[in-house]
Write a structure and sequence with these properties.
Udp-n-acetylmuramoylalanyl-d-glutamate--2,6- Diaminopimelate Ligase, Chain: A, domain 1, alpha/beta, ten-stranded parallel sheet, about 350 residues, 5 helices, 40 strands, twelve-stranded mixed sheet, flat, UDP N-Acetylglucosamine Acyltransferase, domain 1
Length: about 350
């Protein structure tokens, strides 16, 4: 796709300083810009690069005043970083705006589809599936019986959405995601063996939920596993049965949340965090990477460590932990003196 500086300025409500007809067809970092590329300058640390960049167009803040000659055409906007992000979103929308049904696919006669559908090759759509408008389903996707998908949803290649799952509007499900697999429910019997507990619930994603590649979200034993609106999950996360995650909470990669735990709104959870089952985590909680959470957490707590401590207490304790060998040597020296 090719865009001129004038077209880009129109999208961003910006002002062209230079040649409005100059065109770009790719994006680049400012230090790696080449002819035909578009870049941006938002961080003052990179200002020196704008005088050397070969990028055809550079997005800058309105208050940027060049101190040297520029080869690049400028587009001045209120906020260069936000404008560049807006442009990336627009680019993705144009690039991913596929429509039509490729072959071969299987779609049940009882499935219904809205307008603007894209259905990639080798996809499977089960019985009584309801799919909204402008949904993009990439190749090799499995959608089980009785699934409901809202408007403007993107399901990338190879995702699996099991039966009865409900996905709201404006959601993104990345490749390798599995939504609605059985929860880890087994009960021991008298022979020391484990018998499976049937998992009869479902998974609900409310509006504006993003699920990263390779993440798994298990169906509930009874009721629903629920991700409330605006939740963002990174890659390779495990969400167990009957978990509920509150609005606009974000979770980084390789975190695991055990069954029936409730997480509040606007939480930020780092990578490789382990959270036990059947606890409640409040609103606005921040959990540092590699922490282990084994208790209920109140609103606004900041935690680190395994088992997790208050963030300030953890840092104080870590100072002592680092000095532990020195402390032991001092104790040994004192004991040796006493023996003498």
């Amino acid at each position: 796709m090719v865009f001129t500086a004038g077209q880009i300025a129109g999208i961003l409500e910006g002002e062209v300083h230079g040649n409005p007809e100059i065109a770009v067809h790719k994006l680049a970092k400012i230090e790696e810009g080449e002819k035909g590329s578009l870049t941006f300058l938002a961080n003052p640390k990179y200002t020196a690069h704008i005088y050397k960049t070969r990028a055809s167009i550079t997005i800058v803040n309105k208050d940027f005043i060049p101190e040297q000659h520029l080869e690049t055409t400028l587009i001045k906007v209120e906020d260069a970083y936000k404008s560049f992000s807006k442009l990336l979103e627009y680019y993705n929308q144009v690039k991913n705006n596929k429509i039509g049904i490729e072959q071969p696919v299987f779609k049940s006669d009882s499935a219904t589809f809205g307008d603007g559908l894209y259905l990639g090759a080798f996809s499977y759509i089960g019985s009584n599936v309801v799919i909204g408008n402008n949904v993009k389903i990439y190749p090799n996707v499995y959608i089980g019986d009785n699934v409901r998908i809202g408007d403007n949803v993107v399901v990338f290649a190879g995702a699996k959405i099991y039966s009865e799952s409900i996905i709201g509007n404006n959601c993104v499900v990345h490749s390798g995601v599995i939504i609605g697999a059985d929860g880890f429910g087994f009960t021991p019997n008298s022979n020391g063996e484990f018998s499976k507990v049937p998992q009869t619930g479902n998974v609900i994603l409310e509006d504006n939920v993003d699920v990263g590649a390779g993440t798994t979200i298990d169906r509930a034993t009874l009721g629903s596993t629920i991700l409330r609106k605006g939740v963002k999950l990174d890659n390779q996360i495990q969400i167990a049965h009957n978990v509920e995650i509150g609005e606009h909470t974000v979770i980084a990669a390789q975190t695991g949340v055990a069954g029936s735990t409730k997480i509040g709104k606007h939480c930020m959870i780092g990578g490789q965090v382990g959270i036990v089952g059947h606890i409640v985590i409040g609103n606005n909680v921040k959990i540092q990477a590699q922490s282990g959470i084994g208790r209920n957490v109140k609103d606004n707590e900041v935690l680190q460590g395994s088992p997790a401590l208050n963030y300030g207490d953890f840092n104080k304790s870590y100072v002592h932990f680092k000095n532990l060998p020195k402390i032991i040597n001092r104790i040994d020296n004192l004991e040796n003196k006493d023996r003498r």
